[in-house]
Design a protein that fits this description.
The complex is a heterodimer of chains A (about 500) and B (about 650). Chain A has a two-stranded antiparallel sheet with strand order 1-2. Chain A is mostly helical. Chain A has 19 helices and two strands. Chain A has one domain. In chain B, helix 9 runs antiparallel to helix 12. Chain B is about 70% helix and about 5% strand. The chains are: A mainly alpha (about 500), B mainly alpha (about 650). The interface between A and B is large, with 63 and 62 residues.
């Protein structure tokens, strides 16, 4: 590693780099391919290689020390690398889900997979960002690809509408973010979190108001990506309109990246701003918990119900963000790991039940699934029970961790709202379970078989159950190593 | 010895294996193989529990803990999953596996020919596994796993015959009402961690003794655990799910909704006895919830006409007795009543099942009567159970109920909270119990035959696979009480046995021997009055008095279940349904339905959410802009103010 120039640590960003190179290679391949199969396989290979690099990085970071690059602009510490794993798992599962789905839905274009990889690459940059410019860069890399992906179903009004809405509102949110960054820079003269925090804390700093306003705008921009109320409204529409594998990807990877960025800022810059920021965010979290869960209660379509449930889960993650720093960060990563498995799993089952245009996700369609497809029904039951937070599945431990983190940070009322809302949530998750087992079949289901999707389902079921029974293993790994910028 | 005791740890695993085998291969098995597998897996668990029980009795130690694996270590908080086999949990295990085994065997006959035969036994085995987990857990967290597990199994089994929409609705209702209690459990757990820094039950119990007597944090924890217990044990105000839960197959009602699961709330409170003993306020709440539930449920039982619903209200009422027992600080007494009640109530339900079986599904007692002649074993055993629950001296129910009454009258823990009033309520309820149970027996087994003539010829006693469990349970219903004879004059085994597990500083007034005998006399009088009145009303008066009272206010109140269902429907269910239907047609008649659904706060909120989610891009952008403007406003206001 004798690269000339100032402080570039290549090891630190090997995983996103591998994804970037794979994506570039896949685009070249795509020029000569009609089908996306080859690019899909190449993408899977790239993801596995990235995972291996990430694993290596994880080992090193746990044993020695966290990496930084470009000064403190790019951080590869335990949380960042753990987030990389979450992103990689989510991406692999999304690719597996897409493998046969795209052919079936007549959407099989080889450019699809490079876009997913690029988006994941952007998410990793966001996760590692140690300054506002890197954050913005990662966010835009990630988002641009997702805008295209969510409108992937050409000719379908819903899908195009989803992409368009997401794009326009996303641009709107980015404007807030950029303006916020400008204000923070104006107030402190720095982009790097550590330096901003140092200035904020320094003697004679008299621009607190300006900085706080900037912080609020940054918060709004990130809250949009994480789908926190009142910036969540794009989510149900985009999630419902996008092809199901893309929905799964968005609801997991994009959310993880946004939460990671929020955690980083909340543990470095925000503590030195006015306490208003935390209070406002607490209100957003409460609003998200209530709105997401109540709206999910009244959905007839299962996909749309899951979309609202994804909003609700952003609220639970928000609880952990409020406790950012060591406990909250770990709780959030753990929760996201569990959420990735169970949420993608649920969407994977959905993609095998709905028809090729993603129509027909009504509750009635699930009637009698327990008899017609016992395996699929059992898997969906596991995912829904886990999402509802029923022990001993992963979702339960995740909820325990985030509630505990919020309580430790002193947000008692919020934790109680969360617990009460998780009681409400059981109603809409269980409605699907009840329909599957307590109703006679009403529809002839399409005979879909896809080994790739089945594999994704098996992996997610196993993960949801094992992670729930042995939560200590993953949590223990998260505790090792160092978290940069925490509790400064 | 420890090794022998540890053997019992395999009991839940065996039940789980039974469930797995039936779940995976059950469809390929021919009847009665799934039933045999399920019965065996529970039966072996029973044997292991017996071995462990005697090993514990013979050995020195009173508690064996078995660590399974570390669950989570986060900072100072550390938790391993494990079992605690002590005198209390082993007694519960004996009840669960023993009564459970008999009910499994009975089910082989009862479920004969049902297309869901193997699915049924899978659910039953899964339930036993979860229930064992609940009582064996050494931490609140693992207990909660079992707690939720039994809830889910109960849900699956209530809705077992799902072709009837009512059954599926009943299952859902049971689950949702239970979740309210579960929220209490979760909140209690978090408060426990915050207060004690651990979820280990024994550690919490030890630490609770060191806390200030009557401190408010203990009171709140106690009240939250009480909320959890009211959900699972169907106490006020969450009792509404249990009568509906009778939609499940009758053996399920016997096992889950009479003998075991519904007693989990009592077990929970007895398990954390040292905590409750430190907080008279929460204990008094437990006792009063129990006392009022006992009274109201007994009152409702007067007018029910479904053979199983009468028993369901009777169960709620008897659970109320148990709550009073653990509320006044007599923890062993509560468990004693759990023990005796498990036998006679399971017997009553199985007897009812036998009747339903013989009458081809008939459940209305108005179309029964005189069945004792035709079904000798069922009739006789049901009579024994009826007398036992009515509190007739020398049968098991008498001893446990009398112990509850006596301890309520002499409780020092809740002496400031009207324990004597509570005693009076219980005494009246005891008489009412004898009355409605006499009515139950008389309407079903005695008096004139009111069932259709054509059924008379095909009427038959149930097969021996069903009657044998009845006989065994009847024997237990007679004898179980002798384990807990009144302490002042006789040896009392069960109090002594449970002492190390539920040891607390709670004390009771010492009465003179003559006063003790007087209390017993009052209990006997209550039972006699109830039975005597029942005899007069239904045998001598031939129900003419009842017919005249049919339209009175009280009778209507009783028939409607005290109006709880109607109240909950009006407050919670209808607004939600109105909103749901309103949401499905947002575009068409938004104003009209909006006004209707807007009647409730929940409806209004969901309405507002739907209005915001209009689908228009500009509306979304506006919402975001307003959000940011509010942010800016807040910041600038804070600047102006400071």
């Amino acid at each position: 590693m004798t690269f000339p120039g100032p402080d570039i640590n290549w090891v630190a960003f090997t995983p996103p780099l591998v994804l970037l190179l794979t994506a570039a290679l896949a685009v070249l391949f795509a020029l000569y391919q009609e089908s996306g199969r080859l690019t899909a396989q190449l993408s899977l290979l790239g993801l596995v290689v990235a995972a291996l690099f990430n694993l290596h990085l994880f080992q090193v970071v746990r044993q020695t020390d966290a990496f930084t690059s470009f000064g403190l602009r790019y951080l590869a510490d335990t949380p960042a690398i753990a987030f990389n794993f979450v992103i990689l798992i989510g991406t692999v599962l999304a690719v597996l889900m897409s493998y046969h789905y795209l052919e079936r839905a007549d959407l099989d274009h080889p450019e699809y997979y490079p876009l997913i990889l690029l988006s994941a690459c952007g998410a990793m940059v966001m996760v590692a960002a140690g300054d506002l410019i890197t954050l913005l860069l990662g966010l835009e890399i990630m988002s641009l690809a997702v805008y295209v992906l969510s409108a992937w179903r050409q000719g379908s009004r819903e899908s195009e509408e989803a992409g368009m809405k997401y794009f326009l509102l996303g641009a709107f949110a980015s404007a807030f973010l950029v303006y916020g960054i400008a204000l923070l820079y104006g107030a402190s003269g720095h982009f790097v979190y550590a330096e901003i925090a140092a200035v904020l804390r320094g003697d004679g700093f008299d621009q607190l108001l300006l900085a706080t306003l900037g912080g609020m705008l940054v918060l709004a921009g990130l809250a949009f990506k994480a789908a926190l109320a009142p910036f969540h409204q794009w989510a149900p529409d985009a999630y419902t309109g996008a092809p199901t594998p893309v929905t799964a990807f968005m609801s997991v990877v994009v959310k993880a990246a946004a939460i990671a960025a929020l955690l980083r800022i909340f543990s470095s810059v925000f503590p030195d701003l006015s306490p208003l920021v935390g209070q406002v965010f607490a209100v957003l979290v409460a609003l998200t918990l209530v709105l997401g869960n109540l709206a999910a209660l009244f959905q007839r379509g299962v996909k749309r119900m899951l979309a609202y449930s994804a909003v609700a889960h952003a609220g639970y993650l928000g609880l952990a963000v409020l406790a950012a720093g060591t406990v909250g960060t770990r709780a959030a990563i753990w929760y996201l790991t569990a959420y990735t498995l169970m949420n993608v799993g649920a969407f994977a089952v959905l993609s095998l039940i709905a028809d090729r245009n993603d129509r027909g996700d009504d509750l009635e369609r699930f009637a009698g699934l327990g008899r017609m497809k016992p395996g699929l029904a059992a898997a969906l039951t596991v995912f829904l029970l886990s999402l509802a937070g029923i022990p001993p599945l992963a979702g339960f431990t995740g909820k325990i961790l985030v509630f505990q983190a919020a309580l430790q940070a002193g947000y008692v009322a919020l934790a109680i709202i969360g617990i009460v809302m998780s009681v409400v949530a059981v109603v809409y998750y269980f409605r699907v379970v009840a329909v599957m087992y307590f109703r006679e079949p009403e529809y002839e289901l399409p005979a879909i078989s896809s080994w790739a999707t089945s594999m994704a389902i098996v992996v997610t079921v196993a993960g949801t159950v094992l992670l729930g029974i042995f939560p200590g293993w993953w949590y223990g790994l998260l505790q090792a190593g160092r978290q940069l910028l925490a509790g400064m | 010895m420890t090794d022998l005791i540890s053997l019992a740890a395999f009991a839940p695993l065996l039940a789980l294996i039974g469930a797995l085998v039936n779940g995976l291969f059950g469809r390929a098995f021919r009847e009665p193989l799934p039933g045999v597998i399920a019965s065996l897996s529970v039966g072996i668990g029973f044997l292991l529990s017996i071995i462990a029980f005697f090993a514990l009795a013979a050995g020195e130690e009173t508690r064996v803990s078995i660590t399974l694996w570390p669950y989570l270590q986060a900072g100072s908080f550390e938790l391993s999953l494990g079992f605690a086999l002590d005198r209390l949990s082993l007694l519960m295990m004996l009840i669960i596996t023993g009564v459970g085994f008999l009910i499994h065997v009975y089910s082989i006959g009862y479920m004969h020919g049902d297309e869901g035969f193997s699915r049924y036994f899978m659910g039953l085995n899964l339930f036993v596994a979860a229930m064992l987990l609940l009582v064996m857990a050494d931490s609140f967290l693992l207990m909660f796993v079992g707690w939720e597990g039994v809830g889910i199994c109960s849900y699956l089994l209530i809705g077992f015959w799902y072709r009837e929409k009512l059954n599926a609705d009943a299952a859902r209702k049971a689950f949702i009402v239970n979740r309210i209690g579960d929220a209490g459990f979760l909140l209690a757990m978090f408060l426990t961690v915050t207060t004690f820094g651990t979820l280990d039950i024994q550690a919490v119990n030890e630490a609770a003794g060191a806390l200030v007597f009557g401190s408010s944090v203990l009171g709140v924890i106690g009240l939250l655990y009480l909320l959890a217990a009211t959900g699972k044990s169907a106490q006020l105000p969450l009792q509404v799910w249990l009568p509906d839960a009778m939609a499940g197959p009758t053996p399920v009602s016997a096992l889950i909704h009479a003998a075991t699961m519904v007693t989990a709330g009592v077990y929970l409170i007895a398990r954390v006895a040292p905590l409750f003993a430190q907080t008279p306020a929460a204990s008094a709440a437990v006792a009063w919830v129990g006392g009022l539930t006992a009274l109201i449920a007994a009152f409702i039982a007067f007018s029910q006409t479904d053979i199983k619903k009468i028993l369901a209200y009777s169960t709620i009422s008897q659970l109320g007795f148990m709550f009073v027992a653990v509320g006044v600080g007599a923890y062993w007494v509560g468990i004693f009543h759990v023990f005796t009640h498990a036998f006679f109530k399971a017997l009553l339900f199985l007897g009812a099942g036998s009747v339903i079986h013989a009458l081809a599904g008939e459940q209305d007692v108005r179309r029964m009567g005189g069945l004792g002649k035709h079904m000798r074993v069922t009739g006789t055993t049901s009579l024994i159970a009826t007398l036992a629950i009515a509190g007739v001296p020398l049968l098991s129910g008498f001893f446990s109920k009398d112990a509850i009454l006596a301890h309520t009258a002499t409780s020092e823990l809740i002496a400031d909270y009207g324990n004597l009033v509570l005693y009076a309520i219980l005494l009246v309820t005891a008489a009412m119990t004898a009355f409605y149970m006499f009515r139950w027996y008389h309407r079903v087994f005695a008096g004139e035959e009111r069932f259709p003539k054509k059924l008379r010829d095909s009427l038959h006693e149930s097969p021996s696979v069903m009657t044998l469990p009845l006989v065994i349970l009847a024997v237990c219903s007679v004898l179980a009480g002798y384990l807990g004879l009144p302490e002042f004059a006789f040896p009392n085994w069960i109090a002594h046995w449970l002492e190390p597990s539920v040891e607390t500083p709670v004390s009771f007034l010492h009465l003179s021997t003559s006063l003790e005998w007087l209390l017993i006399g009052l209990s006997v009088v209550a039972a006699a009055v109830g039975l005597g009145l029942g005899y007069w009303v239904y045998e001598r008066n031939r129900g003419r008095l009842v017919a005249r009272l049919e339209e009175s206010m009280l009778a209507r109140l009783s028939r409607s279940g005290f109006g709880f269902d109607a109240l909950y429907r009006a407050v919670f269910v209808e607004p939600a349904e109105g909103t749901a239907s309103g949401l499905s047609s947002v575009d068409t008649d938004i104003v009209d339905r909006g006004l209707r659904a807007g009647a409730s706060p929940v409806g209004l909120l969901a309405r507002a959410a739907a209005l915001l989610q209009s689908g228009y891009l500009r509306a979304y952008a506006l919402a975001m802009l307003i959000g940011v403007l509010v942010f800016a406003l807040i910041v600038s206001l804070s600047g102006v103010l400071s």
